[in-house]
Amino acid sequence: MSFQKVTLLGRATADSDKLGDVGAKFTIATNESWTDKDGQKQEKTEFHNCVAFGALGQKVALPFVEKGKQLFVEGKLSTKKVDEKYFTNIVVSNIQLL
User: Fold this and answer.
1) DSSP of 18-78, one letter per residue?
2) Residue 68 backbone zone (phi > 0: left; psi -120 to 50: alpha; other: beta)
3) How does strand 23-35 pair with strand 17-19?
4) Residue 24 and residue 71: Cα distance in Å, rounded?
5) What are the tens digits of pLDDT across the range 39-75?
6) How far is residue 5's CA from residue 92's CA, in Å, rounded to a whole number?
């Protein structure tokens, strides 16, 4: 048995885009900050590509995911290989607009 779940709390980097007739895609930025061994504050931003299919994509992500909005997203990882490069997306199962 195995299990995977991704949970993100971040901000949309742009308005969502239509993903053909099947849903929507969008990107979320998350930030992490810490103090290094020299006492300097450090910050790192990660960008997460998200896809939402069906009604979740068309009725929630497309009309409501806008640049700068804070989002809580749950889903699972999906990686595919295209021309010798790997791309990882979050396949969204839940979106909460905050």
Assistant:
1) EETTTEEEEEEEEEEEEE-TTS-EEEEEEEEEEEEEHHIIIIIIHHH--TT-EEEEEEEEE
2) left
3) antiparallel
4) 15
5) 999 999 999 999 999 999 999 999 999 999 999 999 9
6) 10
Phi, psi of 38 (to 5 degrees): -90, 5
Structure tokens at 42: 């450090």
Q: Using CA atoms, how far apart are residues 24 and 78, in angstroms rounded to an integer? A: 15
Does this model's pTM top 0.85? My answer is yes
The domains located in the chain, with CATH, are: 6-97 (2.40.50.140)
Q: CA–CA separation, 86 vs 69, rounded Å?
A: 28
Tokens of 10: 């971040």
